[in-house]
Write a structure and sequence with these properties.
about 600 residues, Glucose Oxidase, domain 1, 8-stranded mixed sheet, 4-stranded parallel sheet, 14 strands
Length: about 600
């Protein structure tokens, strides 16, 4: 398959930029592979501790060091709907491992917090940094050197990026990511959004809002909108770390359980003990990373991945930049309309042809690298197949649809919803920022209006309730970056700004914080770097300054003479209150050492 010249050029540029760091990384995992699984080198007391709780059959197998041992890293808890289905997965995986002649052990559990629960609360200030905690916790689980491969059970926003960062740190080990799937469809997303706006306007009460939210988030599985959690699943599949077609099968179904068994057996098949050794550090190369960015743009995925993909790539020695995202976006068409980029949810996307059709279309247009390594043992063309349960109860894969089953949800390249992916980098005297315009109407792609400056989303909400936000304006919310308060999502702003836009006002958001992965119709220049807490020029913006946010030209400017703007003192903010309560005091080291958003906003 012929690759698009622009995609090839960007891949080559990333490869050249990463040459030194990638070579060092591959050298490390080669040395780890040469050392081999260290179970045979453990002292007898070490090894006895490692299998003390196993059953007799598994214990005997591990004593001999001749069968593969599969480590399970799980993000199970029963408070998160997305992760609750994982409760029974270890037993399914252990049984599948025995059938394949191996052993499986839960190597460790990692924390999994829910941004849906913590939105607008103090706990959200731990959210982004939980990615790095998850990576560290995974490292602890795998540090026992008992495993030939690992399976990773995780779904949501920071969990999958954290798991992948750790998996790449143990890059000599094969790894398969095992999803749990989305919940069945509940209240339509557009109806839910309207109710949220009515609540923001004070037209309905909390009881009505809670009833609507409960009808939307109603059972086990991921939330069905296309936020960060479901973008994670798309990425794991298009980057070759899921089994084909595994991403969006609902929980607690025969197909879901069959895919989990197959994932365990596949992980055991690709260890160094067999003939198909496939370490994850070789799967995730420059081509796989570019494929991930292509998928992100083609589906209108979460802006959070302009942070996470950068951090994940760096874990493999690959240097990915925001400019790569923007330039890939320029040539990748938008093929999916899933809320907030449309009315459909991920179940509708899956029913319309899902990942198999999406990958087929992108491969056909030369927008994906087909010649990659995957856990499935094929190039990416193997991911145009769909899994199914045959009449005899066995799991099999058949070629997926060659045409979309609903072009309002999933379009072929020739009928793309828009010619570009919608992720843009904005540059100017405020700094560098990211904006997602796939859900923003074209007449809102350029906003020029006076600034209204706030230092929290609560302050903006209070101004709205006081009736002070009539007219056009650009909301500038600063001191929301990783060093200020952990970079919480500012999702509470979405209904408020949506109300003001629906009233006919031209509004936009500029912030050094994050928006939800489900950010939508209001233009939002986010992740402004450098952040205010690091002395970024966003700290010089004043109320009334005219700001021009131009998605067409890719600029973000305060229309103030340069001499005047540069001479202004930076705003100051007392951040002491962000350091305590809800566990925030435990994360002082993270805030003090966090990288900029453009470098992934983490400490690893």
């Amino acid at each position: 398959m012929t690759i698009h010249p622009k995609i090839e050029a960007i891949t080559d540029r990333i490869r050249a930029r990463s040459e030194t760091s990638r070579a060092a990384y591959l050298g490390r995992i080669a040395a780890a592979r040469e050392a081999g699984v260290r179970r045979a080198h453990l002292a007898c007391g070490n090894l006895a501790h490692g299998f003390a709780a196993c059953g007799g059959e598994d214990k005997a197998a591990l004593k001999g060091d001749v069968v593969p041992n599969l480590g399970i890293i799980t993000a199970y808890n029963d408070m998160l709907s997305a992760h609750q289905p994982y409760e029974g997965y270890p037993e399914i995986i252990r049984a599948a491992a025995r059938e394949a002649g191996g052993v499986a052990q839960v190597a460790g559990g990692v924390p999994a917090m829910c941004d849906g629960v913590t939105q607008g609360q103090a706990g959200m200030e731990l959210s982004l940094f939980s990615r790095d905690v998850i990576a560290m916790a995974t490292g602890i689980g795998l540090s026992h050197a008992m495993f030939d491969a690992a399976v990773y059970l995780g779904i949501c926003d920071k969990i999958v990026p954290g798991l992948l960062i750790a998996a790449l740190t143990f890059g000599h080990l094969p790894a398969v990511f095992v999803p749990a799937g989305p919940m069945t469809s509940g209240m339509p997303n557009d109806e839910k959004a309207k109710i949220r706006q009515l609540y923001a306007e004070g037209k309905i009460g909390r009881d009505a809002l809670l009833e609507a939210e409960s009808a939307s988030y109603h059972g086990p599985g991921t939330c069905t909108f296309y936020g960060t959690a479901n973008t994670n699943q798309m990425l794991m599949e298009i980057m070759g770390l899921h089994l084909p077609g595994a991403s969006f099968v609902n929980p607690n179904t025969p197909l879901r359980d069959a895919l989990t068994r197959a994932a365990a057996k596949r992980a055991l098949a690709i260890t160094a003990l067999g003939n198909e050794y496939t370490p994850i550090g070789e799967i995730i190369d420059e081509r796989a990373v570019v494929n991930g960015v292509v998928g992100l743009n083609a589906t209108g995925g979460s802006t959070n991945h302009t942070l996470h993909l950068v951090a994940m790539a760096r874990a493999a020695g690959i240097v990915l930049t925001w400019d790569d995202f923007s330039e890939i976006s320029d040539v990748v068409p938008l093929l999916a309309r899933v809320y907030p980029n449309g009315l459909a949810d991920v179940n509708h996307f899956h029913a319309a042809g899902g990942m198999a059709f999406l990958i087929r279309e992108l491969l056909g247009a030369g927008l994906l690298h087909e010649d990659v390594t995957t856990v499935w043992g094929t190039g990416l063309s193997g991911y145009t197949a769909e899994p199914r349960i045959e009449a005899d109860g066995t799991l099999a894969w058949r070629e997926g649809p060659v045409a979309s089953l609903d072009e309002k949800v999933l379009a072929p390249v020739g009928k793309a919803f828009q010619p570009t992916g919608g992720l843009k980098v904005l540059k100017g005297n405020v700094g560098r920022a990211v904006i997602k315009i796939s859900a923003v109407k074209p007449d809102r792609h350029v906003i020029e209006a006076p600034a209204k400056v706030f230092h929290s989303q609560d302050a903006l909400q209070a101004a709205f309730k006081r009736g002070e936000l009539d007219g056009d304006f650009v909301a500038v919310i600063r001191f929301q970056g990783p060093r200020a308060n952990g970079m919480p999502e500012l999702h509470k702003l979405t209904p408020t700004l949506g109300v003001l836009q629906d009233r006919g006002h031209r509004v936009a958001l500029v912030t050094d914080g994050r928006m939800s992965g489900a950010s939508g119709k209001v233009p939002a220049a986010i992740h402004v770097s450098p952040e205010a807490a690091s002395g970024g020029p966003i700290g010089r913006v004043r109320d009334g300054d005219l700001i021009r946010l131009d998605c067409v030209a890719g600029t973000l400017e305060v229309l103030v003479p340069a001499e005047e703007f540069d001479a202004r003192p930076l705003a100051e903010q007392d951040l002491a209150a962000n350091g305590f309560g809800t566990g925030r005091e435990l994360f002082a080291m993270f805030r003090g050492n966090a990288a900029s958003a453009e470098l992934g906003a983490g400490v690893l």
